[in-house]
Write a structure and sequence with these properties.
It is a single chain. The protein is an alpha/beta fold. The chain folds into two domains: about 1-100, Rossmann fold, CATH 3.40.50; about 105-220, Rossmann fold, CATH 3.40.50.170. The chain has eight helices and nine strands. It has helices at about 15-25, 45-50, 65-75, 95-100, 120-125, 160-185, 205, 215-220; strands at about 5-10, 30-40, 55-60, 80-85, 105-110, 130-140, 150-155, 190, 195-200. The strands form two sheets. Strands 3-2-1-4-5-6-7 form a seven-stranded mixed sheet, with helices on both faces. The chain has a two-stranded antiparallel ribbon with strand order 8-9. Helix 1 runs parallel beside helix 6 (about 160-185). The longest helix is centred in the C-terminal third of the chain and has 24 residues, at about 160-185. The protein binds 5-O-phosphono-beta-D-ribofuranosylamine. 5-O-phosphono-beta-D-ribofuranosylamine (GRF) binds near residues 14, 15, 108, 109 and 173.
Length: about 220
């Protein structure tokens, strides 16, 4: 059976891209990364794609509509079934978001809807929360909004600075993103309004990252 063809949009380091590439190295994983697009040249993420033999290109277009048109063409030509934003730091044109509704996901390093936008770890520290985490969600026109697929909870430690908290959250991101893409590839996500349900229930590996019930039981 053909695996889900995934196109990844990046702007920089590409460690989440790497997590997806690593997951897809297992032939049993139901998705493969077929193309990587960066809006910036010479970033580490492009080198990661190249060293895994994945088609990769730079679309440096600063005009939002022109970027969207070029990216859309590349993704369609590559017969992509899912677009995954992974550290993609540009706003997307509304028509692009509409064209890929429920077929485009993003990862954000906070428990949305808390701390959307830039520097979510800094926002979390400033708010004094005891837990933060990361979220994989379907993309909507408004930045860091859209139906939530999966979340992972990460504790904030006393004395954390932005770098330490970001590292701890990033480790969770690298587990969560491949799991969420797997659920999509298996056709198990149903979107109704702002809510996503997983047919067959959350598999145990994701439930561990979405500690519904268990966490509060432990605290009680
Ligand atoms: C990640 O923290 C991701 O959640 C956010 O930007 C960062 C990208 O890191 N959207 P990387 O490029 O995947 O290493």
């Amino acid at each position: 059976m053909e695996r889900l063809r995934v196109g990844v949009l990046i702007s920089g380091r590409g460690s989440n891209l790497q997590a997806l590439i690593d997951a897809a190295a297992d032939p049993a994983y139901p998705a493969e990364i077929v193309t990587v697009i960066s809006n910036r040249g010479a970033v580490p993420g492009l080198a990661r794609a190249a060293s895994s033999g994945i088609v990769n290109l730079v679309i440096a277009e600063t005009d939002r509509a022109a970027f969207a048109a070029a990216a859309d063409r590349v993704l369609r030509e590559a017969r992509v079934g899912l677009v995954a934003l992974a550290g993609f730091m540009r706003l997307l044109d509304a028509s692009f978001v509409a064209a890929w509704t429920d077929r485009m996901v993003n990862i954000h390093p906070s428990l949305l809807p808390a701390f959307p936008g830039l520097h979510p770890q800094r926002q979390a520290l400033a708010a004094g929360v005891k837990f933060s985490g990361c979220t994989v969600h379907f993309v909507r026109a408004e930045v860091d909004t859209g139906p939530i697929i999966a979340q992972a909870v990460v504790p904030v430690a006393d004395g954390d600075d932005e770098t330490r908290l970001a590292e701890r959250i990033l480790a969770a991101e690298h587990r969560l993103y491949p799991l969420a893409v797997r659920l999509y590839a298996e056709g198990r996500l149903r979107v109704a309004g702002n809510k996503v349900t997983v047919t067959g229930g959350m598999p145990p590996d994701i439930a561990a990252l979405n500690p519904s019930g268990t966490l509060t039981e432990k605290l009680a």
